[in-house]
């Protein structure tokens, strides 16, 4: 019995929420020499929807695109194109509906760019039909859209990699497909044409086309795609809106890197900052609270590393517009807000003292001090479990005429560290239970 095409998933961000599936696949399996390259994958794309396939190299993105396009035959599962089982369609019928831009453009020795783009019209022509004015007009229009019309008479072999990529995108558009598959469409393009290519695809999707693209650039995928499908080791790890898929946990599981994810202040789309690779031997905190005194961009990395290690983190008084305040907002770190360049009033100072009193360890970053934030330094007087980060003389960041230096000299830190990594190790050592504490806890549990 022929399998039925699955119903579309609903997603409020997608353009055609109630439209039928233009392309669907269920339980796809593709193996090479007994190794599953894609393993039980399901995907569905509606008319007017742009889906991004993301994931590390070897995740199965290219294989999935080749399988749903019919270039590869799956060992199990089914694919439907506009509701029809792909296995029951001829290659010609598929090409009238679906076009694919491959990651590596095929070598077309001797052909001009226009001739390559005209090839996109072949699925719509009769067996012995010769290209006419109508086909040429559609090809030229596709080249205009991709800004390759200047290459009409040039051989493809004479073009750069990025120019060749745009010519083959024009060929795909000349097919007038209902479904467009793109495998790393921005890989060989410079920044300008990366944006232009995805702007073009998004525009066509707005007119009703369906697009599925494998994209390595995660911020670009989040900016342009309605939904993302995160693949890892041949399986779908997460699927949904960029906000639900691009989480630090998913990124770490799929890519093995730690990241901070936040809305771009200009576009509003998600973007991310990569902090570093995951290390299996990272310390795990035990609910210990660490307070970070920072400002001017000196504390973002420290706060992140502490959170990543499992510590509870708070921060001192941070003025509006401070980059450390922005970092704290992104990471959900509690801090005491203050107006930009307005100084620390009594209420803010009292709130800061409260956060300090609740912390087990305090870290003073390499923050410049002036009249407006000097009370952050005053609040540290008498603190016992204090660590400082210092790679240069304090005098180089004292803008108070020496008052900050006198306060700093009166501190009694338990460790002076050269950076966040060294500070994190010192904090772990400081907060690690002693042997007697562990024995006592063991006796209480028995």
Low-confidence stretches: none
Supply the helix-strand structural class.
alpha/beta
Tally of contiguous helical segments:
16
Query: Portion of residues in helices?
Result: 25-40%
Number of strands: 18
General form: elongated
* Radius of gyration over all CA atoms, rounded: 29 Å
Our estimate of the beta-strand percent is 15-25%
Mean pLDDT: 90
Task: Please tell me about this protein's structure.
With 446 residues, this protein is an alpha/beta fold. The protein is 34% helix and 24% strand. It has 16 helices and 18 strands. The protein has helices at 61-69, 91-97, 113-118, 133-145, 161-174, 191-206, 218-224, 242-245, 248-255, 300-308, 323-331, 346-358, 374-378, 403-409, 420-431, 435-445; strands at 21-32, 35-46, 50-54, 76-81, 84-85, 98-101, 179-183, 210-214, 227-232, 235-240, 257-263, 270-277, 289-293, 312-319, 334-338, 361-364, 386-389, 415-417. The strands form four sheets. The protein has a six-stranded mixed sheet with strand order 6-7-8-3-9-10, sandwiched between helices. The longest helix has 16 residues, at 191-206. The radius of gyration is 29 Å and the shape is elongated. It starts with 20 loop residues before the first strand and ends with a helix. The mean pLDDT is 90.
